[in-house]
Amino acid sequence: MRLFITGLKHCGKSTAAPLIAGRIGCAVADSDDLVLSLVESTSVRQYYRENGAGAFMEKELEAVRGFVSTHESFVLSLGGGAADNTQLMQYMKHNGTIVYLRRDEEVLIQRILSKGMPAFLDPADPRGSFHPIYIRRDGIYSQMADIVIDLGGYGDKTATAEHILSTIMEHEKHGR
């Protein structure tokens, strides 16, 4: 299996990916960690701030290509902004199964804000500034994904990973 786990910030990608990989016995990675291994920076946010979106997207694509080229079977979780990286999305479409972990907009914004105000949101109107991001990325992920899994709210991590894995296995079984 070659699984790309996608979704918006705080949908559960980084939590689910290692649980799924552990169950199917394959390599696992997070694209942010892969990018950090290629750049001299303390965080992907810092690299993005200092070098801009274009440079980050190039490194993100390079990192994912490098990982995919060295692993026959894997589960790779992507950053929430991967939807905005057209080249990366096309690469993933041709090199594995894109799984979109979809959560309700209100569930996500509550989770995002509970972790502190991210730089990409307007502090004066976090919900209003998140809405167009959610709509755009949800549309891209929904269109590009081979499998869309609606997750609802946050529950037990292991049960959620089992649900995701069973949905993927059902998809693979029927060759969809």
- Secondary structure: number of strands: 5
Which stretches are poorly predicted, pLDDT < 50 over at least 5 residues? none
CATH homolog superfamily: P-loop containing nucleotide triphosphate hydrolases
What class do helices, strands and sheet pairing give?
alpha/beta
The run of helices and strands is: EHEHHEHEHHEH
Major sheet, described briefly?
A: 5 strands, parallel
Q: Based on the structure given, which CATH architecture is correct?
A: 3-Layer(aba) Sandwich
- End-to-end gap: 14 Å
Q: Helical residue percent?
A: 55-70%
The number of distinct helices, counting runs of at least 4 residues, comes to 7
- Estimate the strand proportion: 5-15%
Mean pLDDT: 92
What is the CATH class designation?
A: Alpha Beta
Strand arrangement in the largest pleated sheet = 2-3-1-4-5
The domain count comes to 1
Instruction: Report the C-alpha radius of gyration, rounded.
Output: 16 Å
